[in-house]
Design a protein that fits this description.
251 residues; mainly alpha; Arc Repressor Mutant, subunit A; Tetracycline Repressor, domain 2; 12 helices
């Protein structure tokens, strides 16, 4: 029969082995090359990114409120709580501020695209209503930046070109891809996909302007508006639209 002392000795040995290998694993973990985990921004880089974000937020707000030409770099710097010279370290010209705002919008749109329509989810009518809701949320969340950009887009040729390439083109490509899949799955009748995508894109832009003009129906009755838009769109291009929606059978 093993004595108590021998049992304690065995347990102590086991414990020592566990402690030893735990220490080895911890040490090896510390020695992992941090580059394998991806580069981490330095404190200075994080501070610079934060300062740049504050400048762009201030620029978007003042440009939306006062217009591009009336908002001065001095006012923008003051609103961002930085010196005017610091602003020029980040943005050499006022046009660069607009392009910076546009780049931030592009980032947000790319993020939103990851949560966009899933064609596999079924009813195209519901997909359109969901898309309209997403666009409304996006416009509300980024209304200041959108107003700053759209207020200058007609008079600034380079901004207009960048907007078309960085924001409009990806939006149209996404719409066209979704519409083609719906047609292939026979959720929609065959249609001119590029034209239909532009109708939808134009619809969203128009709704944003109505929202900016504080149209009460757009602001307070979005669900009603979305259902009417979906009905106008799909009752003409969805296969057997009347039969699929009995409430339309009396028309």
């Amino acid at each position: 029969m093993l004595s108590v002392c021998s049992l304690l000795s065995e347990h102590s040995l086991t414990l020592l082995i566990v402690v030893h290998w735990t220490a080895v694993i911890i040490e090896e973990t510390r020695n992992i090359d941090m580059e394998d985990l991806g580069p981490r921004p330095s404190r200075r880089q994080r501070q610079a990114a934060e300062r740049e974000g504050k400048i762009l937020d201030a620029a978007a707000r003042l440009i939306a409120e006062r217009g591009f030409h009336r908002a001065t770099t001095r006012e923008i710097a003051a609103a961002a709580d930085v010196a005017e010279g610091t602003l020029y370290n980040y943005f050499a010209t006022k046009d660069d501020l607009l392009f910076g705002i546009l780049a931030r919008l592009e980032e947000q749109i790319n993020t939103a695209a990851q949560q966009s329509l899933l064609v596999e989810s079924g009813d195209p009518r519901k997909l359109l209503i969901q898309a309209l809701l997403q666009r409304r949320h996006f416009a509300e969340s980024h209304s200041v930046m959108l107003q700053a950009i759209l207020s200058e887009i007609l008079s600034n040729a380079e901004l207009r070109s960048r907007y078309a390439e960085q924001l409009l083109k990806p939006t149209l490509q996404s719409l066209e891809a979704n519409l083609r899949q719906l047609v292939e799955r026979r959720k929609l009748t065959p249609l001119d996909v590029p034209a239909a995508a532009r109708v939808l894109a134009g619809l969203w832009v128009g709704l944003f302007f109505l929202q900016a003009l504080e149209d009460p129906l757009v602001i307070h009755e979005w669900d009603r508006l979305s259902n009417v838009i979906a009905g106008m769109f799909f009752d003409s291009i969805a296969p057997q639209a009347v039969e699929d929606h009995p409430d339309k059978s009396s028309l």
